[in-house]
Amino acid sequence: MGLGIIGQAAALFAVTNIDDLLILALFFAQGAGQAGSVRRVVTGQYLGFAAILGVAFAAAFGATFLPESVIPYLGLLPLALGIKAAWQAWKHRGESDDDREVEQTGPRALEVAAVTLANGGDNIGVYVPVFATAGVGGMSVYAAVFLALVAVWCAAGRFFATRPVVARTLSRWGHVLLPVVLIGIGLLMLIEGL
User: Fold this and answer.
1) 177-180 — which CB contacts under 8 Å span 24+ positions?
2) Of 1, 74, 89, 158, which has the fewest Cβ atoms less than 10 A away?
3) Does a structural domain hold residue 33?
């Protein structure tokens, strides 16, 4: 089992979670300079990914939680959060950055978790057959590698959000990009699933 399965798990994680880097960078940028925001984003990412793993493990053992026809409606979560973020951006459109910072607390852990879970439908679809054939020992290795790589993804997302050029861009346009990305993910999930 050794290094081969670890490499497979790392590659599978990277391929199924590349889109999360942009979302994480946007969340980290949204909470830049606000106490506790990094912790909330990381906690939310872990909660959301743990939920993805839980559903994938259960499905690999034959459990079904939702009919397949309902899964696209998970897109309503990022859609609603995107609309909320767009409303907040519009509501504070004329305020200076100093005025906006007092009111904002950055992303909440449960919001990050909801987006991670909703965006993880494709992950679950890929993980279930892999887990079903990997057995309990293999699933344990996959889970350990995936959870370690969530930390790497969070660090990479924060790294991108704090690069001077990216940070300036996200500082200037993040309030627009976050709602657009969340609404886009939600609509894409709904449209592709119907």
Assistant:
1) 177/26, 178/26, 178/27, 178/30, 178/82, 178/85, 179/82, 179/83, 179/85, 179/86, 179/89, 180/82
2) 1
3) yes
* pTM of the complete model beyond 0.85: no
Q: What pLDDT score was predicted for residue 164?
A: 81
- Tens-place pLDDT, residues 84-94: 878 877 887 76
- Unique residue bearing structure tokens 């709904």: 190
SS3 state of residue 38: helix
Q: Is residue 86 part of a domain?
A: no
* 146-167 mean pLDDT: 90
Residue (of 123, 136, 157) closest to 13 by Cα position: 123
**The pLDDT of residue 102:** 40
Q: Which amino acid appears at position 67 of this protein? A: P
Secondary structure of 59-77 in the HEC alphabet?
A: HHCCCCCCCCCCHHHHHHH
Q: pLDDT tens, 49-71? A: 999 999 999 888 876 555 667 66
In the numeric block, the tokens 């199924």 are attached to 16
* Cα separation values, 144 from 103, 123, 138, Å: 38, 16, 10
Q: 138: domain range?
A: 2-65+92-172
- CB contact at 8 A, 148 and 142: no
